[in-house]
Design brief:
Metal_Tscrpt_repr_sf; Methane Monooxygenase Hydroxylase, Chain G, domain 1; elongated; metal ion binding; 87% helix
Length: 93
């Protein structure tokens, strides 16, 4: 029976795939691949990074922020503010 993957394992697997995509982009440029094909792969890499960022944000909201809200106080306000700023950075990116 396979062991259950942790959120950390899932994120690391995604990041390794993205790392492979970036290495592939480097090879494409070195091999002077047609610009539009390289741009298509850049877009795919950006989408993969965004997906990874959203997964991290979701975990943060469901774990860190939720726990801080349950505990209340200034820590809750701080965690919500951090999450809000992270969302703003993602939207601008």
């Amino acid at each position: 029976m396979a062991a259950e993957q942790t959120h950390r394992d899932v994120v690391l697997r995604r990041l390794r795939r993205i790392e492979g995509q970036v290495r592939g982009l480097q090879r494409m440029v070195e091999e002077e691949t047609y610009c539009i094909d390289v741009l298509t792969q850049v877009a795919a890499t950006n989408a993969a990074l965004q997906s990874c960022a959203l997964a991290l944000l979701d975990e943060h909201l469901n774990c860190c922020v939720t726990q801080a809200i349950v505990e209340g106080g200034e820590q809750a306000r701080t965690k919500v503010d951090e999450a809000s700023k992270a969302i703003a950075r993602l939207v601008r990116a």
